[in-house]
Amino acid sequence: MTQAIETQQIKTQGIQPRYGSAFRCIGTECEDTCCHGMSVLIDKTTYERYQAFPAEGLGSLVAQYVSINTVNGDASSAAHATSKVGDSLYGRIRPMSSGDCPFLSTERLCGVQKEYGAELLSATCSTYPRALNRVEDELEVSLYLSCPEAARQVLLDAGSIEVVGDASAAGLRVDQVSRMVGGGGPFYKPYGFFWEIRELVVAMIRDRGRPVWQRLFLLGMLCQRLDEVRGEEQDRVVPGILKTYGGIVASGGLREQLERVEGQPGVQLDVVLRLIDQRVRAGGTGERFLECFEAFQRGIGYSPESTAASDVRRYVEAEERYCRPFFERHPHILENYLQNYIFRTLFPFGREESAHSTQQSIFDEYMLMVMQYVLVYGLLVGVAGEAREEFGEGHVVKVVQSFAKAVEHSPDFLRGINSFVVRRGLGSPRGIAMLLNFQAMERSA
């Protein structure tokens, strides 16, 4: 029962987020709990070990809250359904009616770890909030921002992704590391150019010679071009594509043309309101996220009696007077959010298909990232509108962390985002510019 689970250390090269391997849980000092409101997926080995807990101890909780995942009600189909990812999705720990994990102690710590040690934690609980991805023979460790301490470490460190060196997984369960699909899926992707594409994508996000919306717009155009590469025989065009967009970054090209693009704050606000309201109505978002959404609504004066025009006017004012100036003083925060997303999801290629991620095209991966950025920034605008001159790092961490917990761990909602994009016709260059560009606000000042 206490048999140690194999750990290992894997060497890697290139840009590495330094916060991944260095993360340490702050325990009872944390303002949230890891898994409140969420089912925790567990691997087959963990499931079987939990069945051996004595009934007079944690075994009674296992009988009530731990079960095998089913497919259309058939538990025997679980192993077959998860064959692509081994036994990592074999079972789950359901939350109690309060939303808490049944193993959470009165001290707000893990009862399994307290009773049996870290060796008995599932792969999920052992590694969270770390996201472990293997690319070829290299391990990358980034963080899920649904953890408040992880969000602080990622967002607030101006040099968080400057370190080049080794990634260590010592002491962690690495038997369920995510990987790139690497071919054979429904979408062709130029996997052979992963590192070159990664380097360019990060350079585009760091390009402070242009506003963030222009960086993301150009990234979308790059992803659209890469999406047009349909097979290995066309891979010969990839170096040329990368050279073209690398040249745009180096020269500051297209900035003047993009500065003439009109923004559509009304479209942005409508998207934020509709999608966030949809997520809230689905339930299970947690109190912190609800508090942020309510602050957002107060910040733009949104109410049943308000008009769309007045909501947009206050949204514009909040962005211009409070939100934008803060991020101009702290440009690393939004960059860190996007860079962590790139590492965590292996953007723009995507992680191995599982219950948490479905294979999709490079451009769809891009739209999923952009839509989440739009929702996060939109919420921050409203929260800044309420906090005004007091808007600061604490507000940002709370919004990003609660959003990540409510959205990034909701596969159904994530799948619905791209469907929303298609229905609203937002996947065109014009649609992307409407979603991202706040420039019209400057002209309306």
Indicate the topology.
Blueprint lengths: L14 E2 L2 H4 L17 E3 L1 H8 L3 H11 E3 L9 H4 L9 E3 L17 H6 L6 H5 L2 E6 L2 E6 L4 H9 L6 E2 L13 E2 L14 H12 L6 H16 L10 H14 L3 H5 L5 H18 L4 H13 L8 H22 L2 H14 L16 H26 L5 H16 L2 H14 L4 H8 L2 H6 L1
Parallel strand pairs: 5-8
Antiparallel strand pairs: 1-7, 2-4, 3-4, 5-6
Structure commentary:
The protein has helices at 19-22, 44-51, 55-65, 78-81, 111-116, 123-127, 148-156, 194-205, 212-227, 238-251, 255-259, 265-282, 287-299, 308-329, 332-345, 362-387, 393-408, 411-424, 429-436, 439-444; strands at residues 15-16, 40-42, 66-68, 91-93, 130-135, 138-143, 163-164, 178-179. Helix 12 crosses helix 16 (362-387). The chain is mostly helical. Among the domains are: 35-127, no CATH class; 257-444, no CATH class.
Give a brief rundown of this model.
This protein is mostly helical and 445 residues long. Helix content is 52%, strand content 6%.
Q: What letter string, H or E per element, gives the SSE order?
A: EHEHHEHEHHEEHEEHHHHHHHHHHHHH
Proportion in β-strands = 5-15%
Shape label: globular
Largest sheet: 3 strands, antiparallel
Q: Using DSSP, what is the number of strands?
A: 8
Cα-atom radius of gyration: 22 Å
User: In whole angstroms, how far apart are the ends?
Assistant: 66 Å
Structural key phrases:
445 residues; mainly alpha; three-stranded antiparallel β-sheet; three-stranded mixed β-sheet; 20 helices; globular; disordered N terminus
